[in-house]
Amino acid sequence: MLSKGLKRKQEEEEEGKEALAVDTWWLGPGHPAVAHAPPAVASRSLFDLSVLKLHHSLQQSEPDLQHLVLVVNTLRRIQACMAPTAALPPMPSLPTAPGIADNLLASSDASLSASMASLLEDLSHIEGLSQAPQPLVDEGPPGHPTGGAPPSLGALDLLGPATGCLLVDGLEGLFEDTDTSMYDSELWAPASEGHKSSPEDGPGKEEAPELDEAELDYLMDVLVGTQALERPPGPGC
Amino acid sequence: MVLQPSERHYGDWNHRRLGPWCSPTGSPAPLSCETGCGEGSWILVCRLLVPTQVSLLSMEEDIDTRKINNSFLRDHSYATEADIISTVEFNHTGELLATGDKGGRVVIFQREQESKNQVHRRGEYNVYSTFQSHEPEFDYLKSLEIEEKINKIRWLPQQNAAYFLLSTNDKTVKLWKVSERDKRPEGYNLKDEEGRLRDPATITTLRVPVLRPMDLMVEATPRRVFANAHTYHINSISVNSDYETYMSADDLRINLWNFEITNQSFNIVDIKPANMEELTEVITAAEFHPHHCNTFVYSSSKGTIRLCDMRASALCDRHTKFFEEPEDPSNRSFFSEIISSISDVKFSHSGRYIMTRDYLTVKVWDLNMENRPIETYQVHDYLRSKLCSLYENDCIFDKFECVWNGSDSVIMTGSYNNFFRMFDRNTKRDVTLEASRENSKPRAILKPRKVCVGGKRRKDEISVDSLDFSKKILHTAWHPSENIIAVAATNNLYIFQDKVN
User: Fold this and answer.
1) Closest approach of B216 to chain A, Cα-based (Å)
2) What is the pTM for the complete model shown?
3) Which stretches does the entry tag as region Disordered (chain A) (predicted)?
4) pLDDT tens column, B53-85
5) What are all long-range contacts of B57-65, with beta carbons under 8 Å and residues at least 24 apart?
């Protein structure tokens, strides 16, 4: 309740500041112009924008790695700036990135970093699935390439604890005969351990219904399978 | 090349607005690479288009591409996104100018030869060859489409009658041979003129086949395909001064290739962390030293440049030199890192300096001084207060290139609103010009442009808020020895040259 009140108050302040040049708000905490605007509001709006950019970037079939890294670094910078002012920021007003924003905003600093890192880890996982031959790593004197194909670097990335679940989900995703919405949701799985439950907990947004339907389908499959085996249905069905 | 002060002269420039494939009118333009940019003006030699239909026509057999392109007048309204030029590069003599576009095509222009009858045509470039370099591909395992867009073209030094160039998209580098054929053999004994086998019973005499002249045909053939070596997107290729090797760089790795070997490459730089959680920096550009075959540089998204010596170790993860300018505390913001990301790095022709382009500036570094650049030029500092908007519309991620002139005395880079900027390193003068069809008038001097940053706007100035950020000059090229520049604006290629009285 207190956070809601704080949110409204800050929004009123934001409306009152509309007369200011918007651009000066983004010049960073060190800039003299920022003294005229509440930095928390500026940072939060920029944070929301960056989260949206991150979401859009990862929606690409093959994200631009430079763009992604720069946006992530900017997010980390904003987060570091926002950390001292700390109450959890309110839910973002952008409806198109609810899942990611929910996860990122609800996380602590450490898990946010882990979320960002896991998103990058996703990329590595996707790249690692490729069977294309890797360039030879020259471990000998110049002019003497190592023989044979080196181990896929992508495989090494799957061994991290942060991606343990991803590995399992990814393999299951490869062999499951499911619709593509499951694959899409897989991308966000490592963003938070609680991601799969967030559509149930969070406010209803555009992406939440799709996840619920997919989960319902999965549950139905399980039900049909268990009924066929003459097992009692599991809890929660 | 030694510059003599007496050879510097600034002439009266005449500007001519020309249509596609038209020849320039007026007196010829004697050229000198020593001419600076500040006082003089530039003339538009020609505006070239790379239309889709021309490319399709050139794919047919036995057609003289040059004839078709010379007589083919295109309306720019037919241009598609595939026609957007993505790279421009002169060859080592400046005789040829290659462009690559988003559709995976390469178009090579050749300079009109100087002739006594048509002296005024010198400096004009006409289409020489057009070919489809890369096709869109699909990675079935990752369900990813590989774009055919040509990211870079690099010429090899000419060693025989044929021309060789490297072209690359995100994943694959190709070596192309461009050669002329102006003779064909005639008088075969076993084949008739159409190439069909003759009945041996009808052959009663033997003759020696002879070579007879034919209409010039320019053909491009792929000689090597260097594939499957890059997991991430290739952003740079650079030919080594040994002319035997070249390197290709993607976001996290740099590979060294031998031109003769396509099935393996050496990985010489790998900045991919073992744990991707630690990834905070990517490679943005790389280039070999123009004279020292063991030395190369690569730039990063954090605004750093690393110079590496391949003699030090096989894997050049440890740099020999590290160039970085400390951040200015007064300009620090959330966007500091983004605007410091280097989009292009180029060695000077002398090999003594490197030039880097980040979002707002061009910097010149002395290889012997790592802690700061020796020169910094503001390209469009008026955008500093607009960074949020530019972040919102992603313009802040635009990758501008930069080029040296032949004598390393002038540097050039692009900006928005079809503006491009030149900086004279000696006089410290700079000029802003526009590559635009609408603002070009025949027989008028190309007028320097000025952006009004505040206060009262003068008549010929343009305000910052009126700039068109969709019209960006990302790719430019400078002739290796003369003051001829090529500027790519969407699907248009403008060629400008200076003129001396």
Assistant:
1) 41
2) 0.69
3) 132-153, 190-213
4) 444 433 333 334 343 333 333 334 445 888 899
5) B58/B129, B58/B130, B58/B131, B59/B131, B59/B132, B62/B217, B64/B215, B64/B216, B64/B217, B65/B127, B65/B128, B65/B129, B65/B130, B65/B217, B65/B218
